[in-house]
Batch of 4 targets.
Target 1
Amino acid sequence: MLVLPPPSLCRKLLSPASEARLGQLAARVDFNPDERDWSSDELAERIGAFDVLVTGWRSPKLTGEVLRAGKKRPLKLVAHSAGSVKFLFESEQDVLDLAVTTAAAAMGPAVAEMALQALLMLLRPLHKLDAGIKDGGDWRELKAWGSSRQRELTSQRVGVIGSGHTGHHFIRMLRALGVQTIVYDPYLDSKRAAEMDVERAQTLHELLRGCTAVALHAAATPQTRHMIGARELALLPDSAIFINTARASLVDEEALLAELRRGRISAALDVFSEEPLPPDSPFRRLDNVLLTPHVASHTAQCYHRQGDCVVEEIRRLAHGEPLQYPVTPAMLPTMA
């Protein structure tokens, strides 16, 4: 087994117990000793001795040269410790020619929880009241300001765009809190929507027009690029909340900036077209935007779930059991 994530990431992904399990599952486990990501050429030089490969966010592309070198000892599994695997391969056929698994499901709860937290903060801006009190603001003025801006979650109609791993967890959280939830996902059928206890919007525009808060949880694909533009944002009702913890490419950023400058809606953004967000970014100067530095999935628990997911998939392989999260042909068209 060859584990590609560098040491600092491995320490986050693998608890001592998970690392010990890896040692029990393979006759040989080699870790990347360098605090950097290898190149494809470096991987090609090393891969021939291994039949299980553990990859991560910035792992080198599995080029034709890498895959040919891997045939010296055919790869039985590529276990990806993060979400999409498309960036790892030069073609979709390369993905299908191997047994590939992903830890995307392990990341859903953390991202969904942050989206919910952002929604609550925009509905009841406790962070602004806290800052105002600590900065010496007038108590009565702050109380009047807060009283005029607080809204309850259960009074909202919340729209969810995308019902994949993250969207599914976000929907479960909303429904547990008694929130009316509407979903737009062209791949979600009526039976599955009924099981999830949600209303299914027939079109994206229908969802945007009818919701006081919208959370974006779709995958970034060529088809979803800028799916939210000026026309879509204009459909949101006044005082609506827009949350993006998915990917920046889903939104026309200039159109969103223009809408936010009007002050008609508010937003919570964890992802941006340029990261780090430049110091002179106009987003930094807007008080109706909650900004975070692309950290929605970055919890200790999420990292460990990702590592545990990888270890469990390798255990299943070792014991001849079917993988729990294989990458299948049906997944590729909608995979980020």
Target 2
Amino acid sequence: MPPRKKSTGSRASSVIDETARPDVIVDFRFERGLLYIALINLSDAPAYRVSTRFAKPLRGLGGDCVVSTLPMFRRVEFLAPRKRIETLLDSSHAYFRRREPTVIKALVSFRDARGKARRHEIVHDLKIYKDISYVVNREPAISPYLSPSLAAVDAAPATAKEDPTYGRSKRQSLLQFQLPR
């Protein structure tokens, strides 16, 4: 059921404005040698029936996962205002070593509160992240929220030669459990 129009008065802030337009994008984030991909509603209006089509398959997590086919890109029925859904794509080292596509084209389709279809194409060039330097934390993270075995994952090696498991999906998937410091 579509939301009501914004009314004047004290309840105005709790009711969604049907005239506002949602603006949904796919974006990438580079942090400490890791690449993340996100679906983001930049606007103050909700988006409905959000889907993203990629020009080429986007593989991550050591090449074991076709990230572009995740449910977060196939169909999100409701994407709240200012909402961000993000997942780990891969370590930059592993992604570029596999020679994955660097120019990523994504067609984002969604509807506004009135049901009007909207869509736009977004083009990213991940080569901008290829030669960025970053510091690898070699000391285990000490956190009351992590078990000692998960805390040790933060001490990732600088190169694949130092650790043969570097960039593999099992190691990368553990990174999702780390909490910011």
Target 3
Amino acid sequence: MQELDLLNSKLEILIKSYKSIQAENAGLKQTIVGQSETIQQLNTQVSTLEQQLADRQITDSFAEDKNKDVVRKQLDVVIGEIDKILNSLND
């Protein structure tokens, strides 16, 4: 009879352990789901930020091109004035 009681107590311990492990497993599964959602949100944010960066770089390159054109026009005017002065000095 003692052997049966010992076996019964061991079985109860195993059942309690099994239930504890099941609860832990369910909690871990919820954690995984939450982290997967967080990863998806972060990936969406990264994609949005990458697009904003690309847009900004394009905008900046257009601004630089406009500045280059303005500087080029100013240099053309200055060079034209220098040419006029040199021509008047040669006459």
Target 4
Amino acid sequence: MPAGAPLGNQNAAKGRRFQKAVERVLARKYGDVDKGFEALAEKYIELAEAKDQPILRDFVDRADGKPEQSHVLSGDADNPIVHKIERVVVDGSPTKDA
């Protein structure tokens, strides 16, 4: 079975459409896509330095990666509750009793 999205799936193309639109606007506004990205990066850094909380959190997530999610829902570090998912394949044919 081939890996990836099903044949005909256009989700990636839609994402590229947005990226291309952003690049067109940056080129139009700043004369060059790279200059536009640099101007936005500078503003982003300024907001992070001003301690704009959502921007600062996003900056740290991008710089260090998001914190690992905890998988222990209850219990403690020494006695965590373990969740188990089990796949059972059953024969779906009718039995003699049915």
